[in-house]
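Tip: read the tokens left to right.
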């Protein structure tokens, strides 16, 4: 059936008429979300700055969150980087949620889980450790509020990986997430489990798996950024096709309907 204007209602669309403007709007949102997640993938691994900053913490035996403990010298800088990354993740997830990539129960759950991750990371900074347990004797590894916010952050990041990987199987077209999402989850989950030693009274070497876990979360953000960027390119190509000959065809038919409204014959001249 051709893409033609509605016969009886001026300006109305048929079910078959191309809708270019919403498509390009979705492409813009996806492209913006892709940039936000790409930036978050880099910023989430701000802990690499420990190689150039004299923090005094041993990366093998310290938590990354010790860098912005209340008594640490670089708390403002590194806590600010953590907060900035959280804002990027929240904004990117909300943008992606408002596009077709956010359609479906599992997709909605996945993007909202990333919002939860961002909020938990913000709470992590606002409720920091009071001291750095890896270098200060008498400093407890368990700080109840901070431990709770960190647990929520872990829950939400794993929930996002599981939900979006499931969504990619039956919902929006996300082949990279469908292929690599479960693999990243399978590596990130045991890495996170290996970091709980100090919480159970057995500190030591927990810094290594935690940094591996953070690297894998950065890979997860990079996957999402790539997927959203590819989707935005596909939508722009689709909109470009409809913005060509078919759009001119539809505009021509509209002009015809305006000059000769449907159901109204051109009057024939009567006898003089």
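Filled-in amino acids:
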């Amino acid at each position: 059936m051709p893409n033609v204007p509605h016969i009886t209602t001026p300006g109305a669309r048929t079910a078959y008429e191309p809708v270019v403007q919403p498509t390009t709007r979705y492409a813009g949102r996806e492209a913006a979300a892709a940039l936000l997640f790409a930036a978050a993938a880099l910023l989430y691994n701000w802990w690499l700055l420990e190689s150039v900053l004299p923090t005094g913490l041993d990366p093998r035996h310290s938590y990354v969150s010790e860098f912005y403990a209340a008594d640490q010298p670089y708390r403002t800088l590194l806590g600010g980087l953590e907060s900035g990354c959280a804002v990027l993740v929240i904004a990117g997830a909300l943008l992606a949620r408002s596009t077709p990539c956010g359609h479906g129960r599992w997709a909605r759950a996945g993007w909202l889980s990333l919002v939860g991750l961002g909020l938990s990371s913000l709470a992590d900074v606002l409720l920091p450790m009071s001291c750095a347990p890896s270098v200060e004797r008498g400093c407890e590894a368990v700080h109840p509020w901070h431990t709770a916010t960190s647990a929520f952050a872990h829950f939400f990041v794993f929930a996002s990986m599981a939900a979006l990987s499931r969504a990619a199987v039956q919902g929006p077209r996300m082949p990279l997430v469908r292929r690599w999402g479960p693999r990243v989850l399978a590596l990130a989950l045991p890495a996170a489990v290996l970091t709980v030693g100090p919480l159970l009274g057995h500190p030591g070497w927990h810094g290594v798996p935690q940094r591996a876990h953070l690297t894998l979360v950065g890979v997860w953000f990079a996957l999402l950024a790539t997927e959203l960027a590819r989707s935005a390119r596909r939508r722009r190509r689709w909109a470009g096709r409809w913005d060509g000959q078919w759009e001119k065809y539809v505009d021509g038919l509209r002009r015809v309907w305006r000059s000769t409204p449907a159901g109204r014959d051109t009057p024939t001249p009567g006898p003089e």
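Helices lie at 20-43, 75-97, 105-126, 144-170, 175-193, 207-242, 245-259. The two ends are 44 Å apart (CA to CA).
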